[in-house]
Amino acid sequence: MKINNIFSVFTPKNTKFFFLLNETAIILDQAGDLLIKLFSPMDKDKIGERNKICKLIKGEELKGDRVTHQIFKTLNETFIVPFDREDISTLADEMDNAIDTINRSAHKVLMYVPEQLPNSTLLLAKIIKKETSEIKAAIGKLSSLKTDGQLIRKSYKAIKAMEKEADMVYEKGIVDLFHSKIRTFEIMKLKEIIQELEKSTNKINDVGKVIKNIFIKYT
C-alpha cells in the first residue's frame, strides 16, 4: 500500500482528525511530566503537594478520554477506508490506555499514602517520561511518514529499549523492597505502586508497537 493511502483522508476538512492524535500524544507526555514530579523527593511539610499532582494527572486522564472520544466520533463520520480506520483507532485506543495506566499509578499513591517512596519509583517515572516524549515525537512525524520515517523508526526502537530497561529497574526495585527494613504493610503498598509503574512502561511500549506496524505497512 502506498504512503498516500494512510493519510489520504487528511484533506483540509479532516485536518482536525489528524491533530487530535497529536493532542492525545501531548496529553500523554504531560502526564509523564507530572509523574516525575509526583515521585520526586519532597520535604515532609510538602507531602500534600502529591495529592495536588495526582489530581492534575487525573485531569490529564479525563482530557485524554474526551479527545479519544472525539477521535472515534471523527473516525465514524469521516474516515471511510476500513484498513486505515483500524490502524488509527488502535493507535488512539492504545494511547488512551497508556494515559489510564499512568493515572492508576498516581491513584495508588493517592489511595495508599506511602510513608516513603523508593528510588525505583522515580527511576521508572523517568523512563516513562522518556517513552512519552518519544511517542509525542513519533506521532508528530506521522503526517510526513515518507520523509521522516527513519525518525519514527528511531523513536519506536528507543521505546522498546526503554521498556527493557524498565523491566530491570522493576525487578531490582522489588528485590530491594523485600530486603529492606520497611514494615510489611508498607512493602505491600509500595509493591503495588511499582507494579503499576511497570505496567505503564508496557502500555507505552504497546503504543510504540502500533507505530512500528504503521511504519512497516506504509513505507
Automatic annotation (TrEMBL):
<comment type="similarity">
    <text>Belongs to the UPF0111 family.</text>
</comment>
<dbReference type="InterPro" id="IPR052912">
    <property type="entry name" value="UPF0111_domain"/>
</dbReference>
<protein>
    <submittedName>
        <fullName>Pit accessory protein</fullName>
    </submittedName>
</protein>
<dbReference type="InterPro" id="IPR018445">
    <property type="entry name" value="Put_Phosphate_transp_reg"/>
</dbReference>
<dbReference type="InterPro" id="IPR038078">
    <property type="entry name" value="PhoU-like_sf"/>
</dbReference>
<dbReference type="Pfam" id="PF01865">
    <property type="entry name" value="PhoU_div"/>
</dbReference>
